Amino acid sequence: MGADFTFSKFPYFDMGDNAREDFRSAINSLDEDQLSEWEEWYGEPLDKEDLLEDIEQACGLCSRETATEYSFTENGQKYEINMTGGMSWGDPPTEAYDVFNRAGFFNEIYNLAVAYSVDYIKIYQ
Questions:
Q1: Contact between 83 and 9 (Cβ < 8 Å)
Q2: 3-state secondary structure the chain
Q3: Residue 81 neighbours by CB distance under 10 Å
Q4: What is the pLDDT of residue 90?
Q5: pLDDT for position 119
Q6: What is the average pLDDT across 1-8?
Q7: Residue 100 in contact with residue 56, Cβ under 8 Å?
Q8: How far is it, in rounded angstroms, from Cα 93 to Cα 99?
Q9: Structural contact between residues 72 and 3, judged by C-beta atoms closer than 8 angstroms
Q10: Phi, psi of 9 (to 5 degrees)
Q11: How do the domains of the chain map onto residue ranges?
C-alpha cells in the first residue's frame, strides 16, 4: 500500500471576543445527527470546548507547515485560507492537519469562519 497526498484547509482571520462567542453558539447549536456524525468519524463524543480551541488555533495558524492563499466565496468575495498537507501513510502529514480537519468538520462552523475571513480581509487589505 502506497502513500496518499492529503490536505486540509481553514479560513484565516483574527479570533476576537465576538467571534469566539459566535463560534461557541454555533457549536452549542449542533444537532444530534451532527454530534453522531462526529462520534462516528472520530470514535469519541465531541468535546465542545476542545472544538472551540481547535477553531481558535486553526484560524490564525501560520507556520512552516502551512501556506496562506486567497480564495473566493460563491459570490466572489475574497478571503484568505490556510492550507496544510502532504504525503500520508495513514498518519497526519503535518501537526496542523488534524487541527484544520476538526475545526472545519461541520459546514455551519466552516461557513461562519469564511464569513469572518471575508470581513477580516476587508479590514486589513
A1: yes
A2: CCCEEEEEEEECCCCCHHHHHHHHHHHHCCCHHHHHHHHHHHCCCCCHHHHHHHHHHHCCCCCCCEEEEEEECCCCCEEEEEEEEEEECCCCCCHHHHHHHHHCCCHHHHHHHHHHHHHHHHHHC
A3: 18
A4: 84
A5: 95
A6: 84
A7: no
A8: 12
A9: no
A10: -145, 160
A11: 4-124
Helices 107-124 and 17-28, axial angle in degrees (round to 10): 170
Query: What 3 state SS string does 23-59 have?
Result: HHHHHHCCCHHHHHHHHHHHCCCCCHHHHHHHHHHHC
73-123: pLDDT as tens digits:
999 999 999 999 999 888 889 989 999 999 999 999 999 999 999 999 988
Q: What angle do CA 112, 80, 103 make, to 5 degrees?
A: 45
Using one digit for the tens of pLDDT, what is the confidence trace for 28-85? 999 999 999 999 999 999 999 999 999 999 999 988 999 999 999 999 999 999 999 9
C-alpha cell at 34: 451532527
